[in-house]
Structure formats: C-alpha cells, structure tokens
Amino acid sequence: MSTATHTRQAPEDDLALVPAKPRIGDKVFTGLSTGAGIAIFVILAAVALFLIAQAFPALTSTPEMLQSRGYGPFWSWVAPFAFGTVYSAFWALVFAVPVAIGIALFISHYAPRRLASGLGYVIDLLAAVPSVVYGLWGANTFAAALQPLHAWLATYLGWFPLFTPPASGTGRSMLTTSLVLAVMILPIITSLCREVFLQTPKLHEEAALALGATRWEMICMAVFPFARAGIVSAVMLGLGRALGETMAVAMVLSGAGVIKFDIIGQQNPNTIAATIALNFPDASGLRINQLIAGGLILFVITLAVNMLARWIVRRRAAFSGAN
C-alpha cells in the first residue's frame, strides 16, 4: 500500500507569486522620466533643425556671391575659427587637467578632513563665477601680469615654433586665453574627479596598502584604474565648456581669421563662439546665415566630442564603478 505525499507551498511562496499592485506615484514618476528623456531628444533635434535651416543659404551660396558681398567663401572663412576653437580648448585641457586631478587627489586622499571640506567648497565656488568676470580679470589684470612671461619666452625659447617672436605687447594671446579657460574649467574637472576618487572601494585601497604599497602606489594601482572612466567623463565635460565659451574669449583674446600655432604672438586664431558674439549685433542678410552656419559647425564639433567621450566611457564601464 503506497501512500501519496502531498507538498504544499509555504505562504511566503504564495505571496511571492502575487504581482505587486501598481501605484499612482510610480506611474507618475515613470511618465515624467520618460517625458524628460524624450524632451531632450526633441530639443536637440529642434536646435539642429534650426541651425541647418538658417545656415542653408550660406552653405549653398556660391563663393562668388559671398565674395561680392564681402563675406568670403564659407569654408575658408570658418576654418581658422574652427581651428582656434579646438586649439584654445586643447591648451586649456593641457593646463587644467593635471592641476584638477592633483587637487582632487589631495582633497580625497591626502588632506585632513576639515581642510578637505573647506577646499572642496572653495573649488565649487569657482564654478559660480560668471564668465564675464573671468573675461574682465583676464583682459585687465592677468594679461598684463603675463606680458613679461611672453617676452621671456620669445627671447629664450623663440626657436621653438610655439614661442616664435615677436611676443604680444599686451599679453592678450592664445596662452593667456587658454590659462583663463583652464581656470574656468578647473572646478568642473576637479569636482567630478574628487567624487569618483571617493567612490573607490576601500577594500581595494586597504589591500594595496596591506601588500606594502605606498600611498602613491596604492593610488596608481587601485584609484586610477577604478576612476579612469570618470576622469575621461570629467575631462570631456570640461572640454565642452572650453569649446563653447564666448565672453571670456571675446574679451581676452586678440583674435583674427588666421591659422597659427604660435601661442604668444600678436595675431591669434579666434574662436567660433567669440566671432559670433562680436559680429552678430551688426550682421544682416547673408552675414547672419554665415554666422549661424559657424554655430552649426561648433554644434557638430561639440556633438562629436561628446560622442567620443561616451564611447570611451562605455569601453571602460566593465572595469570601473564610476558609472
């Protein structure tokens, strides 16, 4: 005689099979989040369509038509400004990134807690300073202070192509502009790098120290590999700020439509944003379309930089907790 055994599920298992009752708050939050994400694409597409529509007359006009109105062919006109935009942002990153990473490391791993909190607050305050204030400081104070440095570089390092004499007599050069831009993007890169460094798992740091590593060796073995994607993101955000900066560059840089690698000379390549800001109030007709076409080129450059940054971060996502 066989006895049949019956198994009955536990009450907890029965409850687990019951689907959760949807809440109104969850639905509202989901709708708002989805709407916000869609709005970003809509706004980006609207900006792109506006730039393309307004730039179309300048892009399709013949060089003869543009020259007859005193504007010059579009691509030869915009090329020096595109070069100046990328060139000034490049030097700003060269000056700002090492300093920003050093400050972030000092705040996160070296400074006492009380000093670190105060220094972090001061760095964050730099981001709240308007760009026009940086422009006034750079044009009236910083440029004059750097003029002796320009003369020294032209005298003793004039053989190097970056410091070809004669040097600027006012100090309003690409070097001064890049340093001002470096100060402006310093808070962004520092703040993001500091937060990424603080997210490094303590077990990784303690394991490196337990193996006999010094503090710097621990940072190289545990902190930097973990924070690499976050550092790239911070640098690219700073680069985006430097590429689009307008007023500070317009007030500090003595720019022209030239392509020159010299960073201390009297003639320097201007940026697209500064050129638009300086010429748009007096522009009319086809000139407005040409300036907006320059804005379209700047839009494409910024978009390409951000896409490159996302690609780099995505490649490192599996090895970093920054995302």
From TrEMBL:
Any Pfam family hit: BPD_transp_1
UniProt KW keywords: Cell membrane, Membrane, Phosphate transport, Transmembrane, Transmembrane helix, Transport
Membrane topology: Multi-pass membrane protein
Domain called ABC transmembrane type-1: residue spans: 82-309
GO molecular function, one term: phosphate transmembrane transporter activity
Gene3D superfamilies, per database record: MetI-like
BP term (GO), one: phosphate ion transport
Location in or out of the cell: Cell membrane
Any one of the GO CC terms: plasma membrane
Keyword Transport assigned: yes
Domain of life (superkingdom): Bacteria
Primary location group: membrane
Regions crossing the membrane: 28-54, 74-107, 119-137, 174-197, 218-239, 291-313
Function, as annotated: Part of the binding-protein-dependent transport system for phosphate; probably responsible for the translocation of the substrate across the membrane.
Family stated for the protein in its record: Belongs to the binding-protein-dependent transport system permease family. CysTW subfamily.
Record's protein name: Phosphate transport system permease protein
